[in-house]
Specification:
about 15% helix; elongated; single chain; about 550 residues; mainly beta; 6-stranded antiparallel β-sheet; 8-stranded antiparallel β-sheet; 6 helices
Length: about 550
């Protein structure tokens, strides 16, 4: 195995040296068992130190180089190692590694690891996978201290990291359960629902592994894919927070990253497969603020990537919605020395979804509720966040999809019922809307008030750290008019509203000069007739 910049090994060797005086039992050939139910790993053992168990002292005595160095080619290197640290044998080397940093015999584990870099060590054996017991085993091991390394991990899309173990084998079987120490990824969207044309904010949050300090360099790459219904606004920002509590509790304002990362995107196939966004941090230890000062990144830090996208005309209505999926690529081998291709792992996908809906309105005769009426004209509006300013919908005349909103009523689209009495508005957020009838069908009265309608939805979601692609689904979709609530079609994302019109004379409902003139003329005519009738009767008496 190629051992490169074995910083991880160094820390484990230090732990090894500190354990040399612990009590052990009788020596014999032993087995190391690694509990792991995934058969895609490759574990290899290397004997770093060998020794003989002393039952009186409880120590391993006669410490010497292990079989990992059992080759004549290591002679010069081993001598150089001992000379460099001014020791005469392995026991003194181990004691120096175990010494406190203030001790004159102290040997820095990091420097010791540098000597091991680029060495091809002799393997003590490769573990076999037991599918029945779901574990890996290696038997026939003699007393000593072993470095166990997983030299291969499952392929991309899995939550994995390389892990090394120093295990003491002295006649007893040893069992370990490896634990991957990997970053965590969380994704949030500002709006689960939106209208076509609305801007949606996405936040990607990465926490670092607890063993972050074991890495000389640490890479993070955010791979994000927007579906075709979302248009990327090309506005990535990166911020570093001191801790998760400081970020979630908003007690930490965070430090904006000015340099040390790159952001790119590919929307070549935006209308079909969507847009891919890549945010690359080559080394999290080399992030800088606007003053050019290095940002202090630790295992407690939270790195947050934020960007926005607009829901566009390709948005899926209801159904599966408009997903945005991300996974995090991360350094997963602390032994990497900066040369060659860096070994990385991937987190599982994390997906958030934005939904939008269609409003279908049918115009009918108010008497029988079945006769549909064509030619009715409406304006649809909603209130802005101030609660007083109206904004009227604008739609494409062919597709009926929302293209925008305007505060000028005349610029709002006129929605006209067709021969089936229907008109639609496609691409609406949940919320409250109002319909104003501006023209009634021929022979029918205008509605004397606006219609308020409320579109509402709820969603099913999956709990847990990782969110699968199908985690969110529409649970309920309704539209409410007055006191009546009607279920919508969750698969199609449609809600239906029926509007009635009554036939009769189209007279102004609030009075006015037209009505007043009718009343005046009628009164005059009535008086004239009365006068003529009285005059006629007087003449008859005479």
């Amino acid at each position: 195995m190629k051992m490169s910049k074995m910083k991880k090994l160094a820390s484990l060797l230090l732990a090894l040296a500190m354990c040399l005086s612990l009590s052990v039992t009788a020596f014999a050939a032993s087995t190391i068992t690694i509990n792991n139910d995934t058969d895609k790993y490759t574990y290899v053992a290397y004997q770093i130190f060998s020794g003989t168990y002393d039952s009186t002292s409880g120590d391993l005595i006669g410490l010497d180089w292990g079989s990992a160095f059992d080759d004549d080619t290591y002679g010069t290197i081993k001598s150089a190692m001992l000379s460099a640290y001014n020791v005469s044998n392995v026991a003194e080397l181990a004691a120096g590694l175990a010494a406190d940093s203030t001790d004159s015999n102290y040997i820095d584990a990091e420097e010791f690891a540098a000597y091991l870099a680029d060495l091809t060590l002799k393997s003590a054996g490769t573990f076999n996978y037991d599918s029945t017991n779901t574990n890996y085993t290696l038997s026939g091991l003699t007393d000593g201290y072993y470095l166990v390394v997983n030299t291969a991990v499952p392929s991309s899309g899995t939550d994995t990291a390389y892990s090394n173990y120093i295990l003491r084998v002295v006649g007893e079987n040893v069992t370990v359960s490896p634990k991957s120490d990997v970053p965590q990824l969380d994704k949030k969207v500002s709006d689960v629902d939106a209208s076509i044309g609305d801007t949606v904010t996405y936040t990607l949050t990465a926490s670092l592994p607890s063993k972050y300090a074991d890495y000389d360099t640490y890479k993070l790459i955010f791979h994000d894919t927007l579906s075709s219904g979302l248009t990327y606004n090309n506005n990535v920002t990166v911020t570093v927070y001191d801790s998760e509590a400081g970020y979630t509790g908003k007690t930490d304002t965070g430090t904006a990253v000015a340099s040390g990362y790159s952001a790119s995107y590919d929307d070549t196939n935006k209308s079909t497969t969507g847009t891919t966004i890549t945010v690359t941090i080559t080394d999290t230890n080399k992030l800088y603020d606007s003053n050019g000062d290095a940002i202090d990144v630790t295992a407690n830090s939270i790195i947050v990537v934020t960007f926005t996208a607009k829901l566009n005309e390709n948005a899926v209505i209801g159904g599966d919605g408009n997903p945005n999926t991300v996974y995090l690529e991360y350094s997963n081998n602390p032994n990497w020395d900066g040369n060659g291709t860096e070994e990385t792992g991937n987190t599982p996908n994390d997906t958030v979804i934005t939904w939008t809906y269609e409003l279908d309105v049918t115009k009918v005769d108010g008497t029988d509720n079945t006769t549909t009426l064509s030619g009715a004209e409406f304006k649809l509006y909603r209130y802005q966040s101030d609660g007083t300013t109206k904004e009227y919908v604008q739609v494409d005349s062919t597709s009926n999809k929302v293209t925008g909103w305007t505060t000028t009523e005349a610029d709002g689209s006129t929605l006209t019922s067709n021969s089936s009495g229907l008109f639609s508005v496609t691409g609406l957020d949940v919320g409250t809307y109002y319909l104003t009838e501006t023209k009634a069908p021929t022979g029918y009265n205008l509605l004397d008030s606006d219609i308020e309608l409320v579109i509402a939805a709820t969603y099913n979601s999956e709990s847990g750290t990782w969110i699968s692609d199908d985690a969110y689904k529409i649970a309920t979709l309704t539209v409410t008019v007055g006191s009546t609530t009607t279920d919508g079609d969750t698969s199609k994302g449609t809600v239906d509203v029926t509007v009635e019109n009554n036939s009769g004379s189209s007279l102004p409902s609030t009075g006015g000069m037209g009505t007043t003139m009718i009343y005046v003329i009628g009164t005059i005519v009535a008086l004239a007739l009365a006068i003529l009738l009285i005059t006629k009767k007087r003449m008859e008496r005479e």
